[in-house]
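S1.2 Input.
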Amino acid sequence: MKRVVKSGGVVGVRDTDQGSHVYPESLKVYLAAMQQMWKHNDGNPFIGRELRPLLVQAGFVSTQGSATVDCFGTAEGVKFYAETNQSMIRGSYGSTMVERGIATRTELESFDDAFEQWKKRPDAFAGICYCEALGWKA
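S1.3 Output.
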């Protein structure tokens, strides 16, 4: 990115940091399986915390870091979040977890059931942490 940014230009990056998510205990095993999938795909589930250091390493100056959280704390938000994950579990993402030995079909069913139970709870809440960083080119 630095090569194509004009002098004085700014670059912004944003990604999740799975180690900072707020999840209920009933979904912790699912979160661990998701992190394994990221690693299996040569991804870093904790890359969010590395964004500012990566900009510094790339030679950007006056870097800034921040974080925001997408919250799912209403009945509608919880339903959306649960059903989005259930769709992944039931679809090709879940099949890929099984093919790669990250989860069994039984575990996928357990994940799906955990979301089904969680989304019915009046106290259900989850938060997804996003880390952001800005860097300017000298």
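S1.4 Remarks. The chain has a mean pLDDT of 95.
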